[in-house]
Amino acid sequence: MSGIINFPRPAPHAAIVRLDGLTNVLSELDGENLRTQDDMRHALWVLDLANKCVRIILRDFADDPNIRQLARHAEELTASVEEARYMVQDRGNKYLTLRRSRR
Q1: What is d(CA 21, CA 59) in angstroms, rounded to the nearest whole number?
Q2: How far apart are CA 102 and CA 79, in angstroms?
Q3: Which of 15, 39, 50, 56 could form a disulfide with 34 if both were Cys (CB 3.0 to 4.6 A apart)?
Q4: Burial (0-12, 13-18, 19+ Cβ within 10 Å), 44
Q5: Which of 18, 17, 42, 48 shows the shortest CA–CA distance to 30?
């Protein structure tokens, strides 16, 4: 039916667009490509930067009437970032242990 009538869609909230943009950037991080300490440092830097961006987005929209919904969305993203950060750190620790055992 939508092929016949184009119903107007509400524009997504600007904060959600920004949070989704962060999600898209973070989805490009691939654990399989973390082979060196520099790769892992870079991944951790990106994850830390994403957390800072989430805080900035929430601060920019602090007076928005939808802040609770935005905060929930941000919390989900932040939890995913923290999980990814833990995985990268764990992988880095295994990498260092492996390198030390080869000496």
Answers
A1: 17
A2: 35
A3: 39
A4: middle
A5: 42
Concatenating the DSSP letter of every residue in 49-84 gives HHHHHHHHHHHHTTT-TTHHHHHHHHHHHHHHHHHH
What does the block give as tokens for 77?
Answer: 């993203």
12: helix, strand or coil: coil
Half-sphere exposure at residue 18, Cβ-oriented, CA atoms within 13 angstroms: 18
Q: Is the pLDDT of residue 100 over 90?
A: no
Number of H helices, E strands in the chain: 3, 0
Q: What are phi and psi of 65, to 5 degrees?
A: -65, -20
Three-class SS state of 94: helix
Burial classification of residue 73, based on how many CB atoms lie within 10 Å of its CB (0-12 exposed, 13-18 middle, 19 or more buried) = buried
What token pair was written down for 47?
A: 């994850």
